[in-house]
Amino acid sequence: QVRLVESGGGLVQAGESLRLSCAASRSIFSINVMAWFHQAPGKQRELVATITSGGSTDYADSVKGRFTISRDNANNAIYLQMNSLKPEDTAVYYCYGALGSRAFWGQGTQVTVSS
Fold first, then answer.
1. What is the mean pLDDT of residues 74-85?
2. Other C-beta atoms within 10 Å of 57: how many?
3. How confident is the model at residue 99 (pLDDT cuts 50, 70, 90)?
4. 3-state SS of the chain?
5. In terms of C-beta density within 10 A (0-12 exposed, 13-18 middle, 19 or more buried), how is residue 28 classed?
6. CA separation for the pair 109, 45 (Å, rounded)
7. Which of 39, 69, 76, 100 has the fewest CB atoms within 10 Å around its CB?
8. What pLDDT is stored for residue 56 in this prediction?
């Protein structure tokens, strides 16, 4: 079992930046894939960015060039640097980890971007 806790959300204006953090309760060294999802009101949860244990990353088209996912195995954490935020980025952001067939989710952190 892995417990994931997100932090760093908040209210910002369009064009500003936020950095989300996800702290894991145990080592993430062996966790194959970690990711950030978001879910806007009335919409399905969507994949934002992924990072593998080898450091490979991938991004949703809507955030490419603006968001950067990173992982710090020594501190059992992943991060999402979000720049040039837009009102359409407003959502609850969730941290995700996949270890073999098991998936783990955080409780989410709210990001609100005002125009």
1. 97
2. 14
3. confident
4. CCCEEEECCEEEECCCCEEEEEEECCCCCCCCEEEEEEECCCCCCEEEEEEECCCCEEECCCCCCCEEEEEEHHHCEEEEEECCCCHHHCEEEEEEEEECCEEEECCCEEEEEEC
5. buried
6. 13
7. 100
8. 97
